[in-house]
Amino acid sequence: MTSEHGTTIAVLAALVLTGSCSDGGTGPSNTPPFDPANFVTGVTNPFFPLTPGRIQYYQGQSSGTAQGDSVEVLGQTKTILGVTATVVHDKVYTSGSLTEDTFDWYAQDKDGNVWYLGEDTKELDHGQVVSTEGSWEAGVNGAQAGIIMWADPAAHIGQEYRQEFASGVAEDLAKVVAVNQDVTVPFGSLTGCVKTEDRSALEPGVLENKYYCPSLGITREAGVQGSTDTNELVEVVP
Predict the structure, then answer these.
(1) What residue spans define the domains of the chain?
(2) Residue 184 half-sphere exposure, CB side, CA atoms within 13 Å?
């Protein structure tokens, strides 16, 4: 999936800017303008900090089966639409075996909003790749970047926003439902967290809550409708 866009950057950026209604107008239109000149190096938003070298470990269950998850912020970057994105390596283990291997790409604008620019994901069965469904990259085949965390979440309570858009592939949306939340996970008791309600246009009827806590990012995910899946932070290294 890794590619450099060279002279096509301006054209692809224009697609992102003008393509907000490519889903037939069913998605929210409150995504800020995407301007490659308005981004900074690194991601420092307190509710979604990406510090190279840090690994966060999670435990939970999916469809009744225990899962483990490691999320590592890599030192490498990827250029997407003229923006230098931070690369995050997310690995999911089911019954001790690697079942999902994903590289996610994030970048922060000058206002402090964190954007999601795509992912290269693989599903595995006994070490063999069986699917790359869900992979997408902003600017490729009409895919659009979205917001993963606002600079000021409190200013957006109740407003649904797009996290990602690749038609028929990745169509996740979220809204901030509360701030200053307390949450307890195996890692500890945390305060001042942001609570979101998340859904996918590709999975009608399924809702989950996520908690983003200061200096940590996501600490808890839990299905609240159409799902009983959970994922909770258990350890942070270093």
Answers:
(1) 49-237
(2) 1
Three-class SS state of 73: strand
The predicted-structure confidence for 25-39, as pLDDT tens digits, reads as follows 346 778 999 999 999
Q: Is the peptide bond before 238 cis (omega within 30 degrees of 0)?
A: yes
Burial 116-134 (b: 16+ CB within 10 A, else e): bbbbbbbbbeeeeeeeeeb
Tens of pLDDT, residues 190-230? 999 999 999 999 999 999 999 999 999 999 999 999 999 99
DSSP 3-state percent helix, strand, coil across the chain (nearest 5): 10, 55, 35
Q: Tell me if 102 sits within 8 A of 120, measured CB to CB.
A: yes
Could you tell me how far CA 178 lies from the centroid of its own chain?
19
Burial (CB count <10 Å: 0-12, 13-18, 19+), residue 150:
buried
Residue range 49-237 in CATH 2.60.120: no
- For residue 198, the one-letter residue type is D
pTM flag (> 0.85): yes
Q: Cβ(61)–Cβ(67) under 8 Å?
A: yes
